[in-house]
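Box 3.1 A note on notation
Throughout this textbook, protein chains are presented in two layers. The first layer is the amino acid sequence; the second is a C-alpha cell string describing backbone geometry. Keep the layers aligned when reading.
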Amino acid sequence: MMPAPTSLTERSPSIPSPTSVDEYLAGLTDEQREALEGLRRTVNAAAPDATETIAYQMPALRSHGGQFLVSYAAYKSHYSLFPASGDVVKALGDELTPYLAGQGTIRFPASRPIPLELVTRVVQIRVAEIAGHAAHERKSRS
C-alpha cells in the first residue's frame, strides 16, 4: 500500500497515477480511506447525475455535460475539497471560513470528522452554478 502524498506533487514518478477512484482509495491508510469513502458517498449523493473520474491525480466529479464539479484528496494532516468556485465561498460565507485555505481550496483537519452536511451544500451550490452557466449559454445562443 502506498502512503498518501502530503501534497499533489509528492506522488513518486515511479508510482503510477490512479486510474479510478477505487484505485486512489486503495492507496490510502485505513483511516484516510474511511474518511474519503464518507466524503465520496456524500459528494455522489449531492450530485447523483455526476460522473466520477480522476483529475490531477485525485478523485473528481464532472457534471453530465462534462463540467468540473469538485475534486477531493487525502493529505498527511487534512482532507481537501476543491470546488474551484467563488460562488461557494460567497454562498456559505462565515460557515466556510474556518476551512478555507486559499482560493477554491477547502481543508478539513484529519483530526476531526469531515462536516459532511457542509460538503453536501458545497456540491449542491456547484451543481446549481454549473446549471446556471449552461442555461445562460443556451439562452445566449438563441
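Residues 78 and 109 are 4 Å apart (CA to CA). Residues 8-141 form a domain with the Aspartate Aminotransferase, domain 1 fold (CATH 3.90.1150.200).
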